[in-house]
Amino acid sequence: MKTESRIRPSDSTRNVRYEIRGSLARRALELERLGYEITSLNIGNPGAFGFRTPEILRLAMIENLPRSEGYVHQKGVFAAREAVVLQQQERGVKGVTTDEVFIGNGVSELIDLTLRALLNPGDEVLIPTPDYPLWTAAVTLNGGTPVHYPCRPENNFCPDPDEVANLITPRTRAIVIINPNNPTGAVYPRAVLERLARLAEKHQLIVFSDEIYDGITYDGVESVPMATLVHDTVCATMSGLSKIYRACGYRVGWVSFSGATHRAGEYLAALELLSSLRLCSNVPAQYAVQSALGGYQSIRDLTTPGGRLYESRKAIIEAVERSKYLRLARPDGALYAFVEVRADAVPHFNDSQFALELLEQRHVLITPGVSFNVPYRNHFRITNLPDAQTLSGVFAKIEAQLEDYLARPGAAAATAAAPRVVEANARFSK
After folding, report:
1. Alpha-carbon dihedral sign for residues 74, 77, 80, 81
2. What is the pTM of this model?
């Protein structure tokens, strides 16, 4: 009798996680197929909530379809790269030409390519925690070692440059900065970014600045382009059409290199080689880049008082303020809130268990905080893309689910032990 062998995955995937689209999302799909209506707050996908890509972008793509049937240059369509250069120049970034701009199938592809061109086995990359988990996954898959620097809740999820400095070793090759931040919505102050820039220059680290949400800030908060602060090392600025222009499905992102690029010729050549191996990125949507960056910035209508994103964020903040169990470091940017379940009110809280119960019993899909490579288990992430009324209803369900938890046998004893939990969390925060 023939013995069947199992097909095993690569060992490189063993430590890769992406729970944003993981088991909870699969269970939500199963429930939808059974006829349940699920409120999915796990992904920042504007199109799923009725947002439309600006018409001028659609027209630009349609008008250039006849020019989109063949391969283009591996770095991307010239007009798209030139638009990125002009945007960087307008922001005060010097020395960028179209040769230093690469267009990719979203920022996601460029994260992978830029790290693959850089890392050797064991090389270390500094990544924030909480992080957008693709960064940790891409470092791991490309043979590197992710080293997480804490962005603590009690510090409004901003990094402490002194803590970052203590993590740098001779194997450290790069630092990742996600600003405005996903998942927390934090927008880092200029002073913090300047100190991180000096650290990177001192140790000659490449700065990977993930700025996909750079146009999404609230209440006049400034998002400072990292490339304006980094001069004596290389800064790779990443952005795209997905969020600000509500065009996730177009799969268009870019990375522009600035700073000491004269010392990075071999690295940029390696990146171009990898770009050539995938021939080119999606062509039709590249023709939307010039219209996007040079036209009216409609995102501002959504992020100012009265705008849908502003009002949805406001609904989240107000719901947390009313809650007996929740706390929130106010998100100043991006499309998310990273909500804390207070340990003194709901001790022994488990974010993954709660997320599953909320899905099964209330049909609301959130992402547990542990998905973002944090060492604590009392946070969850939601997106503010639904309208304010929907979000108010969601938080009513979250509150009811937490009430159910506390009504279970043994909950009273757990509540009595809450001071010990708070003390443990305080030890972590030091």
Report:
1. positive
2. 0.91
